[in-house]
């Protein structure tokens, strides 16, 4: 973490001595590797665990951390560590899915608004603005609650409330790019507009999109856990970090480990994704400067 | 004096903005209504259950009567416009659950939410302002690093978990403050701190960045060479420079505070708009849901428009009325 915190202060020196574009690529590769490694660790840990996430053991209820149960057991005697690993796949994976679908929908809307003329632009952006007007969590609670609390409905609700950020960003960037020299040049050379879109507009939007996507991913983890904690998301007995917190809340005094570990897992995951996003933004920021 | 063409531009830009705002408000009500219209479950039986809580089943005639009464058999757009015209005239309907006007229930709960958000906002902003202005005094110092770390942790902190931790520490172990419920000011402390922590985190980070940016402006160095004191520079120039972006972010935070109250009110089992919404959603109290969701969206839109106008007043370089004809400093209007 200290390395990340230092990054901001060293940014100036960094930008002078190294090529930002290579840095960015190297960083993205590293980011991809770490995500893969993280998922592998979660999966292997889960497979190696001698316990099943939803298997009750009434002889060993509410046990504090011991050598058998590293993070203790819950009110049904289920192993907290196993449930955390299993729940992590839900929290992180669902957030990944929600954010990716949101990014694709938002990008499509944003590009359409930026490229299909004024009428499409005005209509699509008014629709985007209207969706944007709802505070995210309030809309998500309402949609998930009205559809009936379940994992699928929560995912649907979070996709519905999450795509607009991408639409706005993509629209403003693509309108901006459409007036840049290299795009005008490409158009004058008679390139079909679909080719311009794929070869010139999208690759230039890419980096900013990845930053926003990272940001949205971590927020999504918080939303999933929040909705599950409030009872509108992943339902018991399924392990999800927010749902585990809800379970642990009732046993706060006798077994505080039930609420401390899931919360810590959320905090650390979101923190590391955020710091990654910050570093990414710094790299892309210096990249843009050097391009001009 | 404004020339005639400038007045014309002004009116044109104003009406364009107003029409945009009306479009968004219309879109927002359409989305809200669609959400409840297509929600699964029979609305007539939801109303019947609310009316006769003791009854077990309902004969089809009663359900049909209710459908007639609430125009549930009409097509989507007829129902939508009927609802919208009543709504715009200030008739928000009656809650299914308690059969009292939605507005009365809202007003009864609004005070709770308002006192919570206002307290949190004041505490959060005071801390954020203090932390960030000390932090930028010496960028890179230990205090600066601590404030940056605190801001990062705060942004990643799930507020429901922070609430639980505070309950565990101050209510369960130390027994200083009540954990759940509403009533005395002491009930307000833990929920307000939970929300305030998040505001402090997000605002410290932003204010620090704005202050640093303002500090890096070349004219600050000039002022320093002229012998203006550091305190004077901070107060008169850096603060003012950072005010416009900071104001924008604070405005957006107020809007997100609405979201935070849902979580915090439910975590601490408090009354208020957030827990009212969650309860109404679970009991399918449609008039209440429609009102609360639309209310939150309108507040959001309203705050955003206010910010834009305030930005223009505070920063003469931004002209929201005619972006192409923005007047730069030194130019005559």
Give an account of the 3D structure.
The complex is a heterodimer of chains A (292) and B (333). Chain A is mainly α. Chain A has helices at residues 2-17, 20-48, 80-115, 117-132, 136-147, 151-162, 164-178, 181-188, 193-229, 241-249, 257-291. Chain A has a domain at 89-292: MetI-like fold, CATH 1.10.3720.10. Chain A contains eleven helices and no strands. The radius of gyration of chain A is 22 Å and the shape is elongated. Mean pLDDT of chain A is 80; it is low at 1-16 and 288-292. Chain B is built from twelve helices and no strands. In chain B, helix 5 (102-135) crosses helix 8 and helix 5 (102-135) packs antiparallel against helix 10 (230-267). Chain B is 74% helix and 0% strand. With 333 residues, chain B is an all-alpha fold. The interface between A and B is large, with 47 and 51 residues.
Nutshell version of this structure?
Chain A has 292 residues and is an all-alpha fold.
Outline the fold blueprint:
The complex is a heterodimer of chains A (292) and B (333).
Chain A: H1 2-17, H2 20-48, H3 80-115, H4 117-132, H5 136-147, H6 151-162, H7 164-178, H8 181-188, H9 193-229, H10 241-249, H11 257-291
Helix pairs in contact in A: 1-11, 2-3, 2-11, 3-4, 3-6, 3-7, 3-9, 3-11, 4-7, 5-6, 6-9, 7-9, 8-9, 9-10, 9-11, 10-11
Chain B: H1 4-37, H2 43-51, H3 60-69, H4 76-88, H5 102-135, H6 142-156, H7 159-173, H8 186-215, H9 218-225, H10 230-267, H11 273-283, H12 286-314
Helix pairs in contact in B: 1-12, 2-3, 5-6, 5-8, 5-10, 6-8, 7-8, 7-10, 8-10, 10-11, 10-12, 11-12
């Amino acid at each position: 973490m200290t390395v990340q915190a230092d990054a901001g202060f060293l940014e100036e020196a960094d930008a002078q001595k190294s090529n930002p574009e290579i840095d960015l690529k190297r960083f993205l590769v590293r980011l991809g590797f770490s995500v893969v490694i993280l998922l592998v660790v979660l999966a292997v840990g889960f497979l190696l665990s001698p316990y099943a996430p939803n298997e009750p053991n009434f002889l060993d209820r509410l046990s504090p951390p011991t050598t058998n149960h590293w993070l203790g057991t819950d009110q049904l005697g289920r192993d907290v560590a196993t449930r955390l690993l299993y729940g992590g796949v839900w929290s992180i994976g669902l957030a990944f899915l929600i954010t990716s679908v949101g990014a694709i929908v938002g990008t499509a809307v944003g590009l359409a608004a930026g490229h299909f003329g004024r009428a499409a632009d005005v209509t699509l952006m008014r629709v985007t603005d209207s969706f944007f007007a709802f505070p995210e969590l309030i809309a998500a609670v309402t949609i998930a609650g009205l559809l009936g609390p379940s994992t699928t409905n929560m995912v649907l609700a979070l996709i519905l409330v999450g795509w607009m950020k991408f639409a706005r960003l993509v629209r403003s960037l693509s309108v901006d790019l459409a007036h840049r020299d290299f795009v005008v040049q490409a158009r004058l050379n008679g390139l079909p507009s679909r080719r311009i879109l794929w070869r010139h507009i999208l690759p230039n939007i890419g980096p900013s999109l990845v930053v926003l996507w990272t940001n949205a991913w971590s927020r999504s983890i918080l939303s999933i856990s929040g909705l599950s904690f409030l009872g509108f998301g992943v339902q018991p007995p399924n392990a999800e970090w927010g749902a585990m917190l809800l379970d642990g809340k009732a046993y706060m005094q006798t077994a505080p480990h039930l609420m401390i570990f899931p919360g810590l897992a959320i905090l650390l995951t979101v923190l590391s994704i955020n710091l990654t996003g910050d570093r990414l933004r710094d790299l892309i920021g210096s990249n843009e400067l050097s391009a001009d | 004096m404004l020339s005639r063409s400038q007045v014309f531009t002004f009116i044109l830009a104003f009406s364009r903005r107003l029409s945009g705002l009306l479009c968004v408000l219309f879109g927002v009500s359409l989305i809200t209504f669609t959400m409840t219209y297509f929600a699964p479950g029979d609305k007539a039986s939801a109303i019947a259950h609310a009316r006769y809580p003791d009854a077990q089943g309902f004969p089809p005639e009663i359900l049909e009567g209710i459908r007639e009464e609430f125009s549930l058999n009409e097509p989507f757009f007829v129902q939508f416009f009927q609802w919208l015209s009543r709504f715009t005239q200030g008739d928000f309907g009656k809650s299914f659950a308690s059969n009292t006007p939605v507005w009365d229930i809202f007003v009864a709960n609004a005070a709770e939410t308002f006192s919570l958000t206002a307290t949190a906002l004041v505490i959060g902003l005071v801390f954020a302002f203090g932390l960030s202005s000390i932090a930028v005094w010496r960028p890179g110092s230990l205090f600066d690093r601590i404030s940056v770390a605190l801001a990062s942790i705060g942004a990643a902190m799930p507020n429901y978990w922070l609430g639980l931790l505070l309950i565990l520490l101050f209510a369960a172990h130390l027994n200083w403050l009540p954990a759940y419920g509403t009533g005395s000011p002491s009930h307000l402390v833990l929920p307000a701190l939970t929300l305030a922590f998040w505001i402090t985190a997000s605002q410290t980070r932003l204010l620090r960045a704005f202050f640093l940016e303002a500090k890096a402006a070349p004219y600050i160095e000039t002022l320093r060479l002229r012998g203006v004191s550091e305190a004077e520079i901070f107060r008169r120039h850096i603060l003012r420079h950072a005010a416009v972006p900071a104001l924008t972010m604070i405005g957006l935070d107020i809007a997100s505070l609405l979201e935070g109250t849902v979580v915090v009110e439910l975590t601490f089992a408090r009354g208020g708009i957030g827990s009212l919404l969650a309860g109404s959603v679970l009991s399918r109290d449609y008039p209440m849901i429609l009102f609360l969701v639309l209310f939150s969206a309108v507040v959001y839109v309203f705050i955003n428009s206010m910010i834009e106008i305030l930005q223009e007043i505070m920063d003469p370089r931004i002209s929201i009325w005619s972006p192409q004809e923005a007047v730069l400093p030194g130019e005559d209007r």
